[in-house]
């Protein structure tokens, strides 16, 4: 196992009033467990506010988790000191969603790419040219500034920056959602090529299930801070078990006018994570909900080897 | 055509910038029919939003409509005065925008903002207007509409705000509804709700809808007729089925092949190499030529015009 996440929780306190009394907590990530093997891509999907980004950031310790363990090659990341953490970050990198906000506008591309190299002590000049070639840009761009590039090109630069320190594991947080479809395809293919070339593992976080299905070996579906279903990518799409996964899949418009209609449309909005419904958090929107669902919390259990679901209706 | 409501004819909207003239919309023509949805699809910067803003005569400075006509009920919107246009905008032709967060005024209640539209266009009294507002909020499926009318936009979720916007747009029974990326800012499950709502309302009210989006899935789901735009021009147009099952323009083909599909097994995505040319520096001839795999010498010399393939399926490509 390259990465093992166990019972990860991230709660944010809600403070109110003059003295900032704690009046409750937002359970952004609530008891999430999964693992990633070397060379594997795990997709993490869900709608806004489901905790998928928080999960990614807590793994890298960009934010501190409330509890749980994250092991990277058997090192417990959450208990590391500053120095050790920095050394470990060489092996774990992140690619951000916003290709505009994630590059320093005052640095040249060469500057951006050599920063991680300096920190982790590597020879820079040749390596920068090398990196730019790897992501399909000409080495001449090293002297130019981020504003001179299009969204797709910036995302390539963001990927080159992540690759600079030769990581084994990359968290890609919505890496293509800000891009046009034709450019999105270029970046998805690039990520797959790099994976084959360097044996990378990805945690691919996105709200777009079609992209996630395309790139991932396994997919975890999150709803209100919890994983509700986890399975091999093909299995999840062909044989979805959780009613939320089914609804999510059927909400996606398919680019073919001949398959119109016949969709399950969920009613209502995603509840606020401040006030998570009792029992199964999905029960107020669930088309199959029974009275039991309102007070029994479902656990994520295997229904078949490698396919786990958190729904009491699917557990016998 | 008896059913046509709005006809755009050879529309030219240009932006005069320091770095030259950007021909954002360059010779676009199409017709919206009663009760039908016309889908305009393309990637960012292709001119689809500027087309819709031109119809509303809301093109921001330094943009200007430089040529062409927009016929609506025998009147040419391009030549109307601002006052005349104000009576049409929001009344006969309404628009819903992408951002449900910013298209409502945060300091007024949702109800007040819809009241305002009905009072301005339909001359209703205050209480009458509120009645109409509540009726509209009920129509768009907001629970507890009397209560919602007194709430401020920040008290509603994104999906609910978009419903308020739709209620506002439809409050004066427009003949044309322009929906510019109406669901892009929403989650998929909410998006499905809103698309469903728009379809229901269109069937009830019979307006013509101009649906603008970058999402081919939404177009396939909702549009009767489709136009694919690239760099300010329509490169292919026709019935939805023809566009998706018999695409003739290399750009349409590339676009369709670059979308990852849920219903089709994984294989490597096809990409369109390169990027869209800048609007101030469009190449002569076909604007897609530099990215096209079928490019020939004629493509770089002469601009292809829309040619009929069959019926109303047309494409602008020398190689088709």
Largest interface: A-B, 44 and 45 residues
Helix content of chain B: 25-40%
Number of strands of chain B: 12
Q: Which regions of chain A are unreliable across 5 or more consecutive residues at pLDDT < 50?
A: none
Helix content of chain A: 25-40%
Helix-strand category of chain B:
alpha/beta
State the helix count of chain B: 11
Judged by helices, strands and strand pairing, the structural class of chain A is alpha/beta
Give the overall silhouette of chain A.
globular
Order of helices and strands of chain B: EEEHEEHEHHHHEHEHEEHHHEE
Largest sheet of chain A: 8 strands, mixed
What is the gyration radius of chain A calculated from CA atoms? 21 Å
Query: Major sheet of chain B, described briefly?
Result: 8 strands, mixed
Helix-strand sequence of chain A: EEEHEEHEHHHEHEHEEHHEE
Low-confidence stretches of chain B: none
End-to-end Cα distance of chain B, whole Å, is 28 Å
Envelope shape of chain B: globular
Q: Strands of the largest sheet of chain A, in order across it?
A: 6-7-8-3-9-10-12-11
Strand runs of chain A, count: 12
What would a concise description of this structure say?
The complex is a heterodimer of chains A (316) and B (320). By secondary structure, chain A is α/β, with parallel strands linked by helices. In chain A, 29% of the residues lie in helices and 25% in strands.
What does this structure look like?
The complex is a heterodimer of chains A (316) and B (320). Chain A is of the alpha/beta class. The mean pLDDT of chain A is 91. In chain A, helix 3 runs parallel beside helix 5 (151-163). Chain A is globular and about 65 Å long. In chain A, the strands form two sheets. An eight-stranded mixed beta sheet of chain A has the order 6-7-8-3-9-10-12-11, sandwiched between helices. In chain A, strands 2-1-4-5 form a four-stranded antiparallel beta sheet. Chain A contains nine helices and twelve strands. Chain B is 32% helix and 25% strand. Chain B contains eleven helices and twelve strands. In chain B, strands 6-7-8-3-9-10-12-11 form an eight-stranded mixed beta sheet, with helices on both faces. A four-stranded antiparallel beta sheet of chain B has the order 2-1-4-5. The mean pLDDT of chain B is 92. Chain A binds chain B through residues 47-48, 150, 152-153, 180-186, 188-189, 192, 207, 209-211, 213-214, 233-234, 237, 247-260, 263, 265-267, 269-270, and chain B through 43-44, 157, 159-160, 187-193, 195-196, 214-221, 223, 240-241, 244-245, 254-256, 258-263, 265-266, 268-273, 275.
């Amino acid at each position: 196992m390259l990465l093992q996440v166990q019972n990860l929780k991230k709660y944010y306190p809600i403070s109110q009033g003059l003295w900032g009394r704690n009046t409750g907590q937002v359970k952004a990530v609530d008891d999430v467990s999964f693992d990633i093997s070397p060379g594997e891509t795990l997709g993490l999907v869900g709608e806004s506010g489901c905790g998928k980004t928080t999960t990614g950031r807590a793994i890298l310790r960009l934010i501190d988790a409330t509890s749980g363990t994250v092991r990277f090659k058997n090192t417990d990341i959450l208990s590391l000191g500053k120095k050790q953490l920095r050394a470990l970050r060489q092996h774990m990198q992140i690619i951000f969603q916003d290709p505009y906000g994630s590059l320093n506008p005052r640095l040249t591309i060469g500057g951006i790419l050599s920063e991680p190299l300096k920190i982790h002590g590597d020879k820079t000049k040749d390596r920068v040219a090398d990196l730019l070639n790897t992501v399909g840009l000409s080495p001449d761009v090293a002297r130019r500034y981020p504003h001179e590039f299009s969204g797709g090109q910036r995302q390539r630069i963001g990927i080159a920056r992540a690759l600079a320190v030769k990581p084994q594991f990359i968290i890609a947080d919505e890496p293509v959602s800000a891009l046009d479809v034709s450019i999105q395809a270029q970046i998805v293919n690039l990520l797959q090529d790099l994976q084959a070339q360097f044996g990378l593992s990805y945690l691919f976080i996105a709200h777009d299930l079609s992209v996630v299905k395309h790139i991932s070996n396994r997919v975890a579906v999150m709803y209100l801070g919890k994983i509700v279903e986890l399975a091999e990518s093909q299995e999840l799409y062909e044989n979805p078990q959780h009613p939320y996964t089914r609804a999510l899949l059927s909400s996606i418009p398919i680019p073919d006018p001949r398959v119109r209609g016949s969709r399950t449309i969920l009613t209502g909005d995603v509840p606020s994570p401040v006030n998570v419904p009792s029992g199964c958090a999905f029960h107020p929107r669930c088309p199959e909900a029974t009275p039991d669902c309102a007070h029994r919390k479902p656990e994520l259990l295997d229904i078949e080897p490698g396919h786990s679901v958190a729904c009491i209706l699917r557990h016998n | 055509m008896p059913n046509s409501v709005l006809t755009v004819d050879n529309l030219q909207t240009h932006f005069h910038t320091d770095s030259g003239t950007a021909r954002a919309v360059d010779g676009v023509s199409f017709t919206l029919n009663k009760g039908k949805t016309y889908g305009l699809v393309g990637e960012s910067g292709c001119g689809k939003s500027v087309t819709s803003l031109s119809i509303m005569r809301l093109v921001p400075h330094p943009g200007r409509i430089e040529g062409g006509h927009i016929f609506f009920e025998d009147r040419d919107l391009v030549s109307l005065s601002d006052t005349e246009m104000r009576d049409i905008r929001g009344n006969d032709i309404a628009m819903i925008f992408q951002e449900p967060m910013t298209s409502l005024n945060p300091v007024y209640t949702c109800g007040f903002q819809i009241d305002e539209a009905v009072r301005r266009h339909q001359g209703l009294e205050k209480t009458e207007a509120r009645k109409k507002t509540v009726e509209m909020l009920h129509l768009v499926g907001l629970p507890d509409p009397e209560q919602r009318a007194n709430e401020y936009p920040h008290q509603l979720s994104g999906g609910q705000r978009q419903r308020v916007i739709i209620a506002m747009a439809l409050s004066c029974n427009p003949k044309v509804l322009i929906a510019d990326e109406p669901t892009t800012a929403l989650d998929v499950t909410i998006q499905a709700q809103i698309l469903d709502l728009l379809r229901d309302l269109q069937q009830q009210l019979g307006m013509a809808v101009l649906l603008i989006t970058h999402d081919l899935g939404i177009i396939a789901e909702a549009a009767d007729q489709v136009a694919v735009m690239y760099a300010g021009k329509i490169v292919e147009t026709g019935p939805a089925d023809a566009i998706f099952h018999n695409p003739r323009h290399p750009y349409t083909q590339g676009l369709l092949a670059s979308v990852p599909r849920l219903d089709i097994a994984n294989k490597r995505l096809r990409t369109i190499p390169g990027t869209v040319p800048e609007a101030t520096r469009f190449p002569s001839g076909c604007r897609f030529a530099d990215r096209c795999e079928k490019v020939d010498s004629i493509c770089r010399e002469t601009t292809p015009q829309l040619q009929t393939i069959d019926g109303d399926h047309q494409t602008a490509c020398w190689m088709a």
